Structures are given as structure tokens and as C-alpha cells.
């Protein structure tokens, strides 16, 4: 079971703006806030997400093939999260829509550091 996911950032304040907006739409807020690390979610709740400057002091980079999936409550929230991402410095990786034939509805985007995320809901 996943407790939380961490993404690297080279600009914590820029990442904070992006994830504060995403978290707010998902009904959560910051649960940890340090000089080099911020985590969003609820204690003892479902998996949260964190943004951090790398502990080793090197530049944060994205993982090729790595993605964080955010479970939305419905298709409207998939659209809303996608719009929030783009309005807060994110970039498009695939507009909201059905994927495949199994009732999977998703939107794909990257945060300002290039970390890939998606918002999804199972519709069938």
C-alpha cells in the first residue's frame, strides 16, 4: 500500500502554488511544511503527495516513465484538475477524455518541474 508519493522540485514555492491549487480541489491541504519539503493530504488518510528539493543537493529531475495518478470523484473533477494544472504553470500531456474501452477517463499533465501526473476516474 502506498503511503505517499514524492516528486522533486528545483523551486519549492512554484511547486507549492501548483500543488496547493490541486490539493484544494481535491479537498485536502498541506499537512507538513518545511523549508525544503511540503506534503499535502490528511494524516491517516489516503496516499498524499509531497514536493521536495533533493536531499543530496543535486538538481531535481523527472523519471522517464514515472507518473502520479490522482483519483478524481467524477469526469467534471478530471476536467477541473486539468484546468487547474494548466492555470498554475503545468503543461498539457493529454486533454481529458476516455482512454481505451474499460471506462477509464483521464487527463494528463506535467507540473512546473516536468513531473507527469494524471487525473482519472473509472466510469464503467
Approximate helicity band = 10-25%
Instruction: Name the CATH superfamily assignment.
Output: 2,3-Dihydroxybiphenyl 1,2-Dioxygenase, domain 1
H and E order:
EHEEEEHEEE
CA-based gyration radius: 14 Å
Question: In total, how many beta strands?
Answer: 8
Q: What is the CATH C level class, in words?
A: Alpha Beta
**How much of the sequence is in beta strands?**
35-45%
The SS-based structural class is alpha/beta
Average residue-wise pLDDT = 96
What strand order characterises the main sheet? 1-4-3-2
| Span between termini | 24 Å
Unreliable sequence segments = none
The CATH topology comes to 2,3-Dihydroxybiphenyl 1,2-Dioxygenase, domain 1
Assign the CATH architecture. Answer: Roll
Overall 3D shape: globular
Q: Helix count, per DSSP?
A: 2
Q: What number of structural domains do the residues give? A: 1
Q: Describe the biggest sheet?
A: 4 strands, mixed
InterPro entries: Glyas_Bleomycin-R_OHBP_Dase, Glyas_Fos-R_dOase_dom, VOC_core
Protein name: Glyoxalase
Description:
The structure is a single chain. This protein is of the alpha/beta class and 124 residues long. It has a single domain (4-54, 68-122), classed as 2,3-Dihydroxybiphenyl 1,2-Dioxygenase, domain 1. The protein is 22% helix and 38% strand. It contains two helices and eight strands. The protein has a four-stranded mixed β-sheet, with helices on one face. Strands 5-8-7-6 form a four-stranded mixed β-sheet, covered by helices on one side. Strand 7 and strand 8 form a beta hairpin. The longest helix has 14 residues, at 12-25. The model has no long low-confidence stretch (mean pLDDT 96).
Amino acid at each position: 500500500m502506498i503511503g505517499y508519493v514524492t516528486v522533486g522540485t528545483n523551486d519549492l514555492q512554484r511547486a507549492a502554488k501548483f500543488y496547493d491549487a490541486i490539493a484544494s480541489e481535491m479537498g485536502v491541504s498541506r499537512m507538513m511544511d518545511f523549508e525544503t519539503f511540503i506534503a499535502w493530504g490528511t494524516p491517516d488518510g489516503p496516499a498524499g503527495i509531497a514536493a521536495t528539493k533533493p536531499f543530496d543537493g543535486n538538481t531535481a529531475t523527472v523519471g522517464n516513465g514515472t507518473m502520479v495518478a490522482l483519483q478524481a470523484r467524477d469526469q467534471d473533477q478530471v476536467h477541473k484538475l486539468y484546468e487547474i494544472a494548466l492555470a498554475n504553470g503545468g503543461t498539457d500531456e493529454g486533454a481529458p477524455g476516455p482512454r481505451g474501452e474499460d471506462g477509464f477517463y483521464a487527463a494528463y499533465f506535467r507540473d512546473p518541474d516536468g513531473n507527469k501526473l494524471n487525473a482519472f476516474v473509472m466510469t464503467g
